[in-house]
Amino acid sequence: MASPLFLCILLVVFGSYVSISAAGDGKQSFVVVSTRSFQTQDVCSTSTGMPRPNGGAVPVVHRHGPCAKSQSTDKPSFAEALHRSRVRTDYIMSRALTMQEQEQEQDEDRVSIPAHLGTSVDSQEYVVTLGLGTPAVEQVVLLDTGSDLSWVQCAPCNSTGCYRQKDPLFDPRKSSTYVPIPCGSDVCNRLQSDHFDDGCTNDGTQCGFRVEYGDGSKTKGVYSNEALTLAPGVVINDFHFGCGYKQGGPNDNYDGLLGLGGAPESLPVQTSAVYSGAFSYCLPPVSSGTGFLALGAPTNTSAFSFTPITPLMNYDTFYTVKLTGISVGGKQLRIPRKVFEGGMIVDCGNIITHLPSTPYAKLESAFRAAMAAYPLLPSDEGDICYNFTGYTNVTVPKVALTFSGGVTVDLDVPNGVLLDGCLAFTESGPDDSVGIIGNVQMRTLEMLYDVSGGRLGFRPVAC
Ligand SMILES: *[C@@H]1O[C@H](CO)[C@@H](O)[C@H](O)[C@H]1NC(C)=O
Ligand SMILES: *[C@@H]1O[C@H](CO)[C@@H](O)[C@H](O)[C@H]1NC(C)=O
Ligand SMILES: *[C@@H]1O[C@H](CO)[C@@H](O)[C@H](O)[C@H]1NC(C)=O
Ligand SMILES: *[C@@H]1O[C@H](CO)[C@@H](O)[C@H](O)[C@H]1NC(C)=O
Fold it and tell me: Alpha carbon 108 to chain centroid distance?
């Protein structure tokens, strides 16, 4: 087994880069990175970087990386990641469109939102290990800012009801703090307006829940109350979650999902009396790294830059911010601000960043020009993937995103821009439509969702 010191050295070597200046402007606009930093490491690095001191941070790791306790066997290729990301985005777009139509047709019969739906889970990549029940049982759950209701698979459950998972199933019969939520209670009735209800179950006494995701995954069971241990000594006594007895779809290897969206069922909203609805996380630069998730906001936020969070119509799940500009290699792209009007959903369950057509086209063209020294791999899908075979280091332009309020965020180079040697951006749809900020772009940034303050904060080089 490798010593922590050895791991630290590995991290320094693979994370090392030299900044060089673009001619004239004096700013460091290109970064020389070792091509070794593109290779997947199979040793887990437990260094969590510099998480803030308070808040009982939970380690966040990549679902397909060596740190995940319930590691999924295969990491998807870039093409597969792009596909999964698009499925999720298409679903979110169609739902946003439904909301828009609904607003426009207020006087007519109410257009119904597809019931019971959450976003797709297949593109989810980051997991945390939580302790559920008393005594606490470890469960590995997907981190999702794009959905609200948390759930795990529950015993008793046979192979038809539950998919395979590596950890033992959570068994409510073995927990002294488990209580099913009664049917007809306020908490249960609330599920109805949020489209998670599934009637009454177990002789009509218990609250049934159901979630169907955009990629066909689904879960149903009993909405329940339980003790949730986030970190040693950080226990939430009345955590509401779905105890799932019947699951289906493409899920495998994780035990459930942790909903961090803005609707009442999500963890931050449930705990808002204590943590003001605020939470933050940092996604590690590579899949062998470790980041963190923390509830609450730090008392000193001077290291963060903030941009306002704006609502996406009256759909309270998603956190939306406004992008106003993009720069590549230190050069601001000439993009009319108007095309960003649809806003950008900040979605840690999505891999790739989806931009409206004009900003995407400008970004792609500037990036390709800056990377013209390197051969592109042939692609049918229009992906921008480079063949770095034979290079020991490559020069990658810095990409920065500017948000309303004049906040400019430098993405990590190369891990916030490139995924497996491919440009981790794609087109979401026409100009003015809503876009999505995916998890690649968030890597190494501490993302602070200060919901009651109506703002999203970015802290660079946080993990
Ligand atoms: C699994 O359990 C369900 C009820 O939850 C039952 O209908 C089904 O027959 C069981 N399947 C097997 C293979 O035992
Ligand atoms: C807040 O943190 C910054 C560093 O991020 C530090 O320079 C400053 O002194 C801190 N302020 C207070 C009041 O602790
Ligand atoms: C990548 O480049 C190397 C070296 O030039 C070449 O041998 C190889 O065939 C290329 N790979 C692909 C998939 O094009
Ligand atoms: C890039 O790699 C070459 C060897 O191929 C080396 O000579 C050069 O110093 C490297 N440049 C940087 C900035 O690391």
Answer: 36
b/e code 208-235 from CB counts within 10 Å (16+ = b):
bbbbbbbbebbbbbbbbbbbbbbbeebb
**Tokens 């903030």, located at residue:** 306
CB atoms < 10 A from the CB of 97, how many?
Answer: 13
Choosing from 17, 389, 393 the residue with most ligand 4 atoms within 8 A of its CB, the one to mutate for a pocket test is: 393
Q: What is the Cα–Cα distance from 330 to 440, expressed in whole angstroms?
A: 20
Residue of the CA atom closest to atom 13 of ligand 3? 377
284/378 Cα distance (integer angstroms):
29
- Tokens linked to 128: 């945390």
CA of 4 to the centre of ligand 4 (A): 28
- Of these ranges, 23-32, 162-171, 442-451, the one predicted with the greatest mean pLDDT is 442-451
Q: Other CB atoms closer than 10 Å to residue 373's CB: what's the count?
A: 9
The confidence score (pLDDT) of residue 375 equals 96
CATH of 11-95+123-459, one of 2.30.38.10, 1.10.220.10, 2.40.70.10, 3.40.50.2300: 2.40.70.10
Tens of pLDDT, residue by residue over 40-92, are 677 888 765 555 555 568 899 888 888 887 656 577 888 888 888 888 888 88
Per domain, the residue ranges of the chain are 11-95+123-459
Ligand closest to Cα of 221 equals 1
Q: How far is the CA of 64 from the centre of ligand 3 (A)?
A: 26
**Cβ atoms 395, 30 nearer than 8 A:** yes
**Could you give phi then psi for residue 316, rounded to 5 degrees?**
-80, -5
CA 80/CA 433 separation, integer angstroms: 24
CA distance 427 to 231: 39
Nearest ligand by distance to the CA of 52: 2
- Whether the per-residue pLDDT at 444 is higher than 90: the answer is yes
Contact in structure between 258 and 239 (CB atoms under 8 Å): no
Pocket residues for ligand 4 (CB within 6 Å)?
18, 32, 392-393
Q: Which residues are catalytic?
A: 144, 347
How far apart are alpha carbons 170 and 268 in whole angstroms?
Answer: 22
Q: What's the chain's length in residues?
A: 463
Give the pLDDT band of residue 334 (cuts 50, 70, 90).
very high
235 Cβ inside 6 Å of ligand 2: no
Q: What is the mean pLDDT of the chain?
A: 85
How would you classify the pairing of strands 256-259 and 137-144? parallel
H-run or E-run covering 85: helix 78-104
Mean of pLDDT values over 377-385: 87
Atom of ligand 4 nearest to the CA of 18: 13
Rounded distance, CA 414 to CA 403, Å?
21
34, amino acid identity: S
